[in-house]
Amino acid sequence: MENLSPNPILETRELWWNIDHNIGKIVFYVMAAISVAIFIYGFAQKLGAIFAGKKEKEDRNTNIKDRILTVLTFGLLQKKIKEKKSGGIAHLLVFLGFIILWLVTDIIAVQEHVFKTIHFFQGTFYKWVSFAAEIGGLLLLLGVISFAARRYIVKSKNLDNTQNDWIQLLFLALFVVTGFMLEAFRMAGTNQIEDFAPIGAALARLVSYMTVEDLQNSHQVLWWFHSVLTFVFIALIPYTKFSHIFLSPLTMYFRSDRHRGQLSTPYSLLELMEAEAEGKEVDEEDFLAGVFTYDDFSWKTLLDSEACTSCGRCHVMCPAQNTDKPLSPKHLMLDIRGLAGKENREEVYEHISPDVLWSCTSCNACVEECPVLIEHVDTIVDMRRALLQSNMAPSNLQATLKNIRTKSNPWGLDPNDRAKWIDEIKEEKGIEIKQASQGNFEYLYWVGSPGAFDDRNKAVTKACAELFTKGGMSFAVLGKEEKNSGDIARRAGDEGLFQELVLENIDTMQRHGVTKLITHCPHTYNTFKNEYPEFGFAGIEVYHHSEVLAQMIKQGYLTPSKEINEVITYHDPCYLARYNDVIDPPRYILDSIPGLKIEQIEKEERKSTCCGGGGAQIWYETPGQQINDMRFEELNEHNPNKISVACPYCSIMLSTAATTALPGTNAPEIEDIAVTLAKSVA
Asked: From CA 407, how far away is CA 483, in angstroms rounded?
């Protein structure tokens, strides 16, 4: 075959150089057709199995523009991936390199098959495309090397090597290396050293000692190897981790547009009651909730499990995993994926231990970290619903739920004692607390069960009431009329009890004309703000006490004046910071107190470590180190005088940890921001 001249007038290259244009092309396209067919068949099977999953009530086809923007933000721009520099940079290199090489291949395909008579792949354009291919290959190779170093040399703790990861890295590395060598053999064989493709040109000079015949033979063998490698890669995509290239964008697109603090609602108890009242026939199947068998998994859960890249970011951030508990969000997703290939896949809880699910605090750290937006907590709660109905819940938790059902508080204490604090604050401070039944108030202060029954949290209730009174706020409380908000029941999996409480509480507040509500519990705050509106609680303004107190200071209704010369660390509650982005108000309150010094800690704001009390876990103990002990150690690293909190669960959990971790010593006091502020306000 005639070689190109060393200095052609219009630079280009022969697309099928050194390859038989007849038999060679036929074999090439037959292999291409087979690989694409296997690819389509594999994905058809996978998607068919996914979308055969249980249908949801939630419509995931709304707000299409926002969904597309989500894919672009988290997929194309890799918003989450870039947050972790080590793995993020490696992934970005591979991603960019892969995309560039894909586009170059598409350009060549268009020249070959679409514009056969119009030769655009030449001249300056050809030079730029060739240079881009060099850059793409280099980026991809650097990314693969980085991934290999993290996995096999550094051995990052979020990664495991139980899968075929090394094969995939080898595939990508061979792509690039063989591509560069093909370029070198072609350049040397045609005596066309293209310096605008510097890597290929450098390698071409290294092999220039070979004869033309040896160059052609080496090129031909390597060309077919490279082609087979390409088509095997395409065929295997649906069956390997590479499938995330296509499944991850789907997970992102179908991400729930519910607020992150709102769990899915499997049925409506109100609709059931209305149907029964009207004498309509009710299909009980419509009011079943939970995952009893594999077929009960929602299609979104199955999609999540298939899209999981096993990157381990959720694994590293999970407080349960970090305290040697059986839960790993990553392995849960992989185990659900693995159920599809089990002979007895219907026996879900023979393959996934209930202890895994009861280890979750619903802190949402896994969801926060996941680069492909998998919704782990929704899946865990859905599985808990089945466990609870199957009597596979911890006995302490079952007793707690019984207490809530019968006494409307988790301790099972006398509901009549819920208003005792009102008499106590009158005796201690001379403050009269208005009850909602008396009417004429602007804000309803929802005290909550801890604020009414737990001594350390009653102090928070009294501090809030005192501050509200000093600030001239018009507020009232429900007193004995108040019930549990239902947060514990819902996250434990008792959807029926949750909805019963919702309907009762909404009825009570509507009777009293409530339009604004304050609570000092982030769990109650989240439930009222994000979950109650679905059941008819729309139009009610819901505030956390930190938001209200911060605003009262800003507007001059409260003035912290007494110095508190202490060093503190502040603990961000999961349901306040991570779920609801309430980060600045608590800090504003603490910053406004004269003399108070706040020490910054590593894990704070949306990256805060859970106290261990969420997801109903405050009511039962799991094996391994306790999460509250781990969090206390993080908060106590700077030896503060106090640890400041803004949540009754955090107060209970961290106070317990302080006693456990530093028995008989001067452990830092755990104090709510409202109590601290009340000490400073004259």
From this structure: 9
Look up the pTM and report it: 0.91
Angle at 166 between CA 162 and CA 167, to 5 degrees: 110
**Position of tokens 């991400």?**
255
Kindly report the number of other CB atoms within 10 A of residue 302's CB atom. 23
The DSSP line for 576-604 is IIITT---HHHHHHHHTSTT-EEPP-SS-
Q: Would you kindly state where each structural domain of the chain is located, as residue ranges?
A: 23-251, 289-296+310-393, 407-552, 567-680
What b/e sequence results for 612-648 when a residue is b if at least 16 CB atoms lie within 10 Å of its CB, and e otherwise? bbbbbbbbbebebebbbbbbbebbbeeebbbbbbbbb
H or E stretch at 402 = helix 395-407
Dist. CA 333–CA 354, nearest whole Å: 14
Question: 314, 366 in Cβ contact below 8 A?
Answer: yes
Q: Does domain 407-552 have CATH number 1.10.3470?
A: no
DSSP element (H, E) containing 443: strand 443-446
Residue 485's contacts (CB-CB under 8 Å, 6 or more residues apart) are 446, 448, 501, 505, 521, 523, 524, 527, 528
Nearest residue to 614 (alpha-carbon basis) of 650, 590, 643, 588: 650
pLDDT digits (tens, 9 = 90+) for 114-124: 776 777 888 88
Domains 23-251 and 407-552 share a fold: no
Percent over 90 (pLDDT), the chain: 77
Confidence at residue 155, expressed as pLDDT on a 0 to 100 scale: 76
Question: Which runs of consecutive H residues, i.e. helices, occur in 636-672?
Answer: 648-661
Helix (H) or strand (E) holding 542: strand 541-544
Listed as ranges, residues in the chain with pLDDT below 50 are: 1-9
Q: Is the Cα dihedral 633, 639, 643, 644 positive or negative?
A: negative
- Give tens-digit pLDDT for 53-81: 999 989 999 999 999 999 999 998 888 88
CATH code reported for the domain at 23-251: 1.20.950.20
Number of helices (H), then strands (E), belonging to the chain: the values are: 28, 8
